[in-house]
Design goal:
about 375 residues, alpha/beta, 2 domains, six-stranded antiparallel sheet, 10 helices, AMP-bd_C_sf, AMP-dep_synth/lig_dom, Long-chain acyl-CoA synthetase, medium-chain fatty acid-CoA ligase activity
Length: about 375
């Protein structure tokens, strides 16, 4: 592995010159990885700690209800995808990668380790303001960016950053408005959205032909099986060399194994061309007037209309309809906007999907990953 003082940068400084918890964590991460030692990465400082044994990474999930679990995987389960991506995207020592999140977010951790595996330089820009992150991307000549949709939304729309050639985007749905803004900010970048979970790593990857709303086709080496489908939508099961070994702490009733296959409780369908379309998680599906309703579908419609602002949909039990829906939107109440949003949901998804109430919040409760804190929102409607 190359000298970290030359290949890793923290907050814009070479790691050898940087100080603070994140710089210390990066140094320890690289040392433990070089030794093949097991390690755990958490959501807060000191971020990285050694674990007994060798060859394993433990990292926390970003549970949307605020109850993170610790997953355990082998280094090899990620290194397999490092090699796939190296070939797919021509990753090499000529690249300079960047991540926006802390090491506690699995996408940032993955991006750092993948860049080092390819011999590339890597910039860790956690904790910087979005405009300063954009400045550093341009100043450092970053060519590969790992980011979530929320992180991309926060970048200043007026910037033009030409050196970035590839953006790997995961951790949430990428709406059309954000994708268009990203294309304007990074005119020379191929935007590749991937779908997966902390437990599975890559499941699908988009390409230039992926229809709007789909999360792409199966990632190399992965097989998908749709089980117990109703109207084409069923539970997504995955066979893959990139799966985790199990939970080191916590558990999930949604995560189940059947031989070589695993599901995390996601619902979806595959079309005739092999593209995967997600409906939502089994745990979030509710029944309204005897119809299965997926809050994530409403969130996707709202994301198109709200642009940079965050939203989330939660359900509350109702004796007449089974459930009723509440929408939480970042910002202050706007009656005209609410009427437009209600009509958009009605037009796109049908009248039964229109929520009972819109609630505007500023600030909006978020998890460390930048995702809405569904647990906190559910308490508001309980």
């Amino acid at each position: 592995m190359a000298d970290v003082s030359q290949t890793v940068f923290c907050g814009g400084l070479p790691l050898a010159q940087a100080s603070g918890d994140m710089a210390d964590a990066l140094s320890l991460l690289i040392l433990l990885r070089a030794q093949g030692a097991s390690l755990r990465v958490s959501h807060r400082a000191p971020w990285v700690e050694p674990r007994p044994g060798t060859g394993h990474i433990e990292c926390m999930t970003s549970g949307s209800r605020g109850r993170p679990k610790v997953i355990r995987r082998t280094y090899a389960s990620w290194e397999g995808s490092f090699e796939v991506n190296r070939k797919l995207f021509a990753l090499s020592a000529r690249d300079r990668a960047a991540v926006f999140g802390t090491l506690g977010h699995s996408l940032a951790l993955y991006g750092v380790l993948e860049a080092l595996h390819a011999g590339a330089c890597v910039e860790v820009l956690a904790g910087m303001r979005p405009d300063h992150q954009a400045d550093r991307l341009a100043q450092a000549g970053v060519s590969v960016l790992y980011a979530t949709p929320t992180q991309l939304k926060l970048l200043p729309a007026e910037r033009i950053i030409r050196d970035v050639r590839l953006i790997l985007c995961g951790g949430g749905a990428l709406d059309r408005i954000t994708a268009d803004r990203v294309s304007a900010v990074f005119p020379n970048a191929a935007l590749r959205e991937f779908y997966g979970a902390s437990e599975t790593s890559f499941i699908t990857l988009s390409d230039e032909h992926t229809p709007q709303g789909s999360v792409g086709r199966v990632y190399p080496g992965v097989e998908i099986e749709i089980r117990d489908a109703t109207n084409g939508v069923g539970e997504v099961w995955v066979k893959s060399p990139y799966l985790f070994e199990g939970y080191a702490e916590g558990e999930s009733a949604e995560t189940r194994r059947d031989g070589d296959l695993l599901t995390v409780g996601e619902l979806g369908r595959q079309d005739g061309a092999g593209y995967l379309w997600l409906a939502g998680r089994t745990s979030r599906m509710v029944t309204i007037a005897d119809k299965n309703v997926y809050p994530e579908e409403i969130e996707r419609v709202l994301a198109e209309a709200l642009g940079e602002r965050v939203c989330a949909v939660v359900a509350r039990r109702d004796p007449l309809r089974g459930n009723v829906l509440f929408v939480f939107v970042e910002g202050h109440k706007d009656d005209d906007e609410e009427r437009r949003l209600r009509q958009q949901i009605r037009d796109d998804l049908g009248p039964e999907m229109v929520p009972r109430r819109f609630v505007y919040l500023d600030p909006f409760p978020l998890l460390a990953s930048g995702k809405p804190d569904l647990g906190a929102l559910e308490k508001r409607v309980a």
